[in-house]
Amino acid sequence: MNKIKDFKENGFYVEKSVIPISLQEELFLTFYDLALSSLNRNKIKLDFEIKNINEVSFPNDILILDKILSALLEHSNDHIAEIYDTVAYSSTFLKFISLPKIEGTVRELLSLEKHTPLYSATHRIRMDFPKDVKRKAGWHQEIFYTLPEARFLQTWAPVLRDSTVDNGTLGVCKKSHLNGIAEQTWEEERKDYATRITIDEKVIEQYEQIDVSMELGDVIYFDPHLIHRSGYNSSQQVRYSQVGMWNDCSYKDFRAPKPDFISRTISLRENYEKYKNSIK
């Protein structure tokens, strides 16, 4: 199989067995530990029994993790948002996205030299809960969801369990990248869905639509112009999936964004005043 040929002709390439099961286990324990911490910090009582971190195992206890996360979501979406942000900068996830095999394939598909830096943009692990429609992404192109005027490709991979049609795996419009930017509409966030930039169904009908079911360990790489979407999770389980962009830092228009880290508790000045007053 010629990965460059597939990528250029179809707009995507699926690489098998890239991510080792040991990293999946580490991520499971990361999620589980953060979920337990959130329960304790927010004083949430559950109506079902759970195991402590030393008792759980992967993959046997994924359903317990699902139940805990679902309980946190029911209490407040803020709890899930904080876990989402914490995982993104955890040492385990940084290892996950920076696997040499992934980096090598990204360089090959972008025709980059080994010395050219790659910039990670919005690498995260999505948690798509059963029957959730608000965060379901409709047909779109990633080019309007990331850094402007950049040269990049996107990666997507199942995490903790396989991605299937039932749990809403990634859908793509084969060869849609060949026609550049499609006509689309910006829709501001509403009560029933997040901000989205959607492509008209008449455009979608022109292409072969494929649901890309993937086994744990697989990674799909795709063109920024490839039209794609997340499916509807009709299962009873959470779908965990890694998403993110790798940018070519040598591209003439590339400019790194300014990080905007905002404390969830007190401000830097408030922290200073707190300790300044405590030592008087």
Tell me what the structure shows.
This protein has 280 residues and is of the alpha+beta class. It has one domain (3-19, 99-278): Jelly Rolls. It has helices spanning 3-10, 21-41, 62-75, 77-88, 91-97, 100-110, 201-204, 268-278, and strands spanning 12-15, 118-128, 152-159, 170-174, 184-187, 196-199, 208-211, 219-222, 228-230, 239-248. It has a 5-stranded antiparallel beta sheet with strand order 1-8-3-10-2. The chain has a 3-stranded antiparallel beta sheet with strand order 7-4-9, with no helix packed on it. A hairpin with an 8-residue loop joins strand 5 and strand 6 (196-199). Helix 2 packs parallel to helix 3. The radius of gyration is 20 Å and the shape is globular. The mean pLDDT is 94.
What's this entry about, in short?
The protein has helices at residues 3-10, 21-41, 62-75, 77-88, 91-97, 100-110, 201-204, 268-278; strands spanning 12-15, 118-128, 152-159, 170-174, 184-187, 196-199, 208-211, 219-222, 228-230, 239-248. The chain is an alpha+beta fold and 280 residues long.
Rg value: 20 Å
**Which CATH-level-2 architecture?**
Sandwich
The fourth-level CATH homologous superfamily is q2cbj1_9rhob like domain
- The end-to-end span amounts to 70 Å
The total tally of domains equals 1
Q: What class do helices, strands and sheet pairing give?
A: alpha+beta
| Molecular shape | globular
Task: Bin the strand percentage.
Answer: 15-25%
User: Can you write the helix and strand succession as a string?
Assistant: HEHHHHHEEEEEHEEEEH
- CATH domain fold name: Jelly Rolls
Oligomer: single chain
CATH class: Mainly Beta
Largest β-sheet summary: 5 strands, antiparallel
What's the β-strand tally?
10
Provide the residue-averaged pLDDT: 94
